[in-house]
Structure formats: C-alpha cells, structure tokens
Design a protein that fits this description.
By secondary structure, the chain is an all-alpha fold. The protein has one domain. The chain contains nine helices and no strands. The chain is globular and about 45 Å long. The chain starts with a helix and ends with a helix.
C-alpha cells in the first residue's frame, strides 16, 4: 500500500511540474540557482527535494541541480546537500521496488529492469558502487533493480554513498567554479569527471574478463 501511494505521489508531482511548465526549470542550472537563492534558508531543503525527486522520477535530470547546489553553497555544503538528496531518492526507489515487486517494475521500465548483472551476492555491492560512478548508467534503474534483490538497506545505502560521493563533489565544485568564473579550475574538474568515468569502466571490463575465464 505504501509503495502504491509513493507511485501516485511522485507521478502526480511529475505531471503537475510538466503541465505547469515548471519542469523546464529543472533542466536549467541558472534558473534553479535563482529559485534556490529566493528560498533563502530553505534553499538546502529545496535542493534535497529536487535531488531525491530527480532520482525517483526518471526523466528529471540531476546534474543541473547538483551544479546549482555547488554554485549556491560551495564545495563542501553543496556536496552534502547533493549526497543527502541523492541518497534519499535512491532509498525511496529501492523501497518502492521492494514493496511493489518485479511485475510492477517491469511494466514501468520494461526489459531495462533486468537484474542478471546484480544477482551475484559476492559482487552486488561492488556492482552498485561502480555503476554509480558511470554517468550513462541510469541511477534510478539501478536503484529500482537493486530493490528486487536480496540486498539489505544498509548495504545498498553504503554502496550508493560510496559510488555517488566523487561525482557529487566534482559537480558541486564545478558549479562553484562556474559561479566564480574560474576557468582553470573548471577545466581541471572536467578532466577529473572524465577520469572517474573511465576508471570504473576499466574495472568493470577487468571483472568481466575474469568472470569469463
């Protein structure tokens, strides 16, 4: 029942944002930053809500929110708010999948929800952690898929936190440097973001080759 209510809640929220045109704001870092600034002391709460919503509701982007968080609150606090929101969203998605079950998730996401790659208990946490480092692997699909496994909440939360921390910090850092127009540091951050994308891909390739031997 709780899972069903969560689906209704987030579906209704997404439809409202889409119909009102407010959803376009979530794709624009500068517009987001202005809204966050307008909310004053409630800005961090807004970031957390936006981040968690972007994780649960697949079409919404999280990168502009992360950049706006860094621009508004700097490297450290910007990262903290991103982590709280992303972790909360991941746990909500994980919980929804666990409560609703495989059939409902498959109807929502189709074949993308297949979880054969997550079914090894020995590599489950590592697979989740690595997947969080790779930008083109859907964050929400991984969260929903993990909810259909036997993995416990704590281990899922830790694996997610491990995986999202580097990119969260770099996005917050990049957003902060954009706000300060610091081009050299922006270039360094872009290179680091590229690095944390390539490294997990190499690790995945090595693990795949070992399993195939």
């Amino acid at each position: 029942m709780t899972g069903f209510l969560l689906v209704i809640l987030f579906s209704g929220l997404y439809l409202y944002l889409e119909q009102s045109g407010s959803i376009n704001t979530l794709f624009n870092q500068q517009s987001l930053q202005q809204i966050i600034n307008d909310f004053g002391q409630w800005g961090p709460i807004l970031i957390i809500i936006f981040m968690s919503g972007a994780i649960v509701m697949s079409p919404l982007p999280s990168a502009p929110i992360a950049l706006a968080s860094g621009a508004a609150y700097g490297h450290v606090w910007g990262t903290i708010y991103i982590l709280i929101g992303a972790e909360l969203g991941a746990i909500i998605a994980f919980s929804m999948a666990r409560m609703l079950g495989h059939d409902v998730m498959k109807r929502r996401f189709g074949d993308k929800i297949k979880i054969r790659w997550l079914q090894s208990d020995n590599h489950l946490m590592l697979a989740i952690g690595i997947s969080r480092l790779i930008p083109f692997i859907s964050f929400d699909i991984v969260s929903y898929a993990a909810g259909l496994t036997s993995l416990g909440y704590l281990r899922f939360a830790l694996a997610t936190l491990f995986g999202i921390t580097p990119a969260s910090y770099l996005l917050a850092h990049f957003g902060s440097e954009m706000a300060n127009s610091d081009l050299p540091n922006m270039i360094v951050t872009i290179l680091l973001l590229g690095g944390i994308t390539v490294i997990p891909l190499l690790i995945s390739l090595i693990l795949s080759r070992r399993r195939n031997r």
